[in-house]
Structures are given as C-alpha cells and as structure tokens.
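Cross-check.
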Amino acid sequence: MNAKTKAKPISRAALSGEADPRLVALSVSIQDDGALYEEDIRGSQAHVSMLAAQGIVPKAAARRIVAALDQVCDEFAAGKIAFDPSLEDVHTHVERRLGELVGKDAGYLHAGRSRNDQVALDERLFIVRGCDRCDGALVRLMQALLAQAKAHEKTLLPGYTHLQRAQPVSLAHHLLAYVEMLGRDRERFAEVRRRAAVSPLGSGALAGTTLPLDRERTARALGLAGVTQNSLDAVSDRDSAIELSFACALASVHLSRLGEEVVLWTTREFGFMTLDDAFATGSSLMPQKKNSDVAELSRGRAARAIGDLVSLLAMVKNLPLAYNRDLQEDKRPLLDGPRALVLTLDALAGAVETATFHAEVMRAALGDGEALATDAAEYLVEKGVPFREAHEAVGKAAAFSTRAGRPLARLTAAEWASFHPRFGADVLRRFDPAESLRRRELPGAPGPKQVKAQLARWSKALRGGR
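Predicted model, tokenized:
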C-alpha cells in the first residue's frame, strides 16, 4: 500500500472531520478480519464479474478489476499489504489497494453491495473452507486410530467405569470408540457446511438494492448452493458461525477425552502406552521426566473452544435486526476455532500413530477374574436365576474372595456352589477374558466378529478420506 496515501475510512463519507483516535482504536478490525482477505477477494471478483454480465459496469473495467484483485491477493499472501488502522477492516484495505492499481475503475466494485452483506459472505466462504479443513484433519486422526486398532485387534485390557476396572474389552474396540465420536464430528461439520454454503450477496445493508443483480450467478461462481431468502436475516445471521464453533467445541471435547486417557495411560501407574519422543517433552528442572504435553494441550484447547462458542452465543443473544457493530467481534472466535482444532487433530494423529501400546501390561491389568464377575452372574441367569439374585450371589463370592486373599478365578467349584446351588463346575470356564469376548457378539459389542466388522466398516468409510 502506498504509504503516502492519506487514508480516510469510507464509512465516514457522510460525516464531517476525522474520527477521534479513540474511536479508531476501538473500531479497527483489520488485525482480525485481515485473515479473510482471500474470501473477501473471491467474493469481490465474483460480484464484479456478475455486474459486468448484467451490464451494470463495463466489461473491460471488470476484467481489469478481477486481474488487479489477483495481484492484491498475492500481495496479501506475501505480507506486502501494510495494515493501516485508519482503514479499519479488510474490505477497505482491499478496495484502497485496488484503487492504487486500477484508479477510478475501483469505484465500480461496490455497486449493489454493502459491507454488511460482504462480510456475511466472507464468513460463509470461510466457514465452508473451515469445515473442509476440519473434516480432513478428523480423517487423519481417525485413520491413525484405525491403524492402531487393526494392529491390536486381539490385545485385551480392562474397560473402565468410574475409572475403576470393569469388564474386559479389546484395545481395538476401545480405540474404535473414539473413531465413532470423530465420525459424528464429521457429520456435524458436513451439516454446518451445507447450511453455510448460500450467498448473502445482494442483501445490501439490510434491504437489497434497486440494481438488477443476478444473485444466483454470483453464488454459482463461488461454488455455493444457493442464495439467502431474507435480506434482514442474511446480514445479521451468524448461525453458521455459531454452528461451526459448536462443532469445533464438541470435537475438541472428544479430543480432550482422548487426551485424558493418553495422560493416564502413559503414567507409570498405568503403563499402558508410551509416546514417541517426538511427541513428548521434558522438564526444565527434572531431567528424568517425559511429559505427554500433546495430550495435555488437547485438554486445554477444549476449554478455549468452549469459550469461543460461549462468546459467539452471548454476542448475538440480544441483537435487534438487522446488522449491528457488535458482530465485528465475532471474527476472533470464528477464525480461532478451525485453526486450533486442525492443529490439535494433527498433533494427536502423529502421537497416536507413533505410540507404543504395551499389550502385556494391559492384559495383566485384567487381574485374575475380577473383571469377569458379571460373566459369573450371567452364568446363573442362563440357568434361570433372576439377575438380582445372581448379582447378590456373585457379590458374596467377591466379598469372600477379598477376605480369603484369593481372586475370583482361583475359587473352587465347591466354594462357588456354596454361594448359589445353581453354580456348577463349568463356572470356572467363565474366567477367561478371551472367551468372555467371544460370547459378546451382539451388534456394537466388543466380540471379535463385531470388532472385525467395525474395522472393515471404518476402513471402507475412510478409504476416500482427505
């Protein structure tokens, strides 16, 4: 940008004098919305091309504007556009630089358009691109989890409730639980993208324009599915921004849950897994430490994502129609969400795909029968005993086991029979974790056939992943 150019915000065209510096300092948004330069320029190129096709501006001028905007985009990408606070926002920066390149022809660009519908378009284009980026990163983490699940199809470990050892599952089944969560996240981002992919251009400041615009042509040029149907709503609607923020927040919560398990599993107390050194950090004081910072940062990022969502919801909760300047403050949480989520997803994907899982430690954590107490109760149910009665009988066996200092799997057939007459000697065969899983083949259960089917299903679903 020409440093000698006297900058005066276009929004003061009907006002006298210059804005007070304190108002300028409060109003300036280029430090945030400057990140939308690519979307802003794409929208302007589609808009001016449509204006030319409609005979509203000369075609030669439109061609010069489109070509010059390509240069402006390159200059933004190269960091050659100096941000000037007096120019307020990205739209003004683009238009001022365009004027330096094509002169008065730049004045054609704003016909039939307000900064209100312009910024609404910029955000929708960003949301569409953000959803695509998040989807690609989700796929990468899902593929990393799936690869480890395939490698550990037969690795057994305790499943937990209340962070207490509960029942045996396979590591594959456990990892696939996160694949399911991330799969739902992909569906949410697809829905956000679908609703965001409509063009608000042509809504003007709030009431459209008298110029004969072809809104559908502009939308098609931008790869959008259609146009908004109410100009008041179009310029003030931030639903898609909030939905994107929600999708990022919930995905971040899923990553936080995964991160928490990585933190636990990499401790010596658990010892279930070891992170590759490339995805761990040391201590500034204690040379023996190996910290799972990638997982801890995943938990911390979730708090940030939740804060972004709450910020956007609070911002719009009491705004009258149509546009209000409050909405300028939506840029930081909107832009932050996809960027932070993609960084977190990719870091976790690297950590998962390079991690070492310790199958022998996991198998040892199953203990000697405690995780199979429910199997013993279901043994009685199969023999016609009401479940509550069966539950009570196995509870007595567990209490006896604790007093005797012998695990459930080491109790004798006679001892089992003393807790309930329906216990036969074959109850001892129920204390084999692998056999327990083979008996759990209901849809969604951790039985080997079910797990194999889920591995195949997700392999097929992710085969065309980004």
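The first helix runs from residue 21 to 27. Strands lie at 156-161, 164-170, 198-199, 226-227, 273-274, 356-357. Passed to J.P. for a second look.
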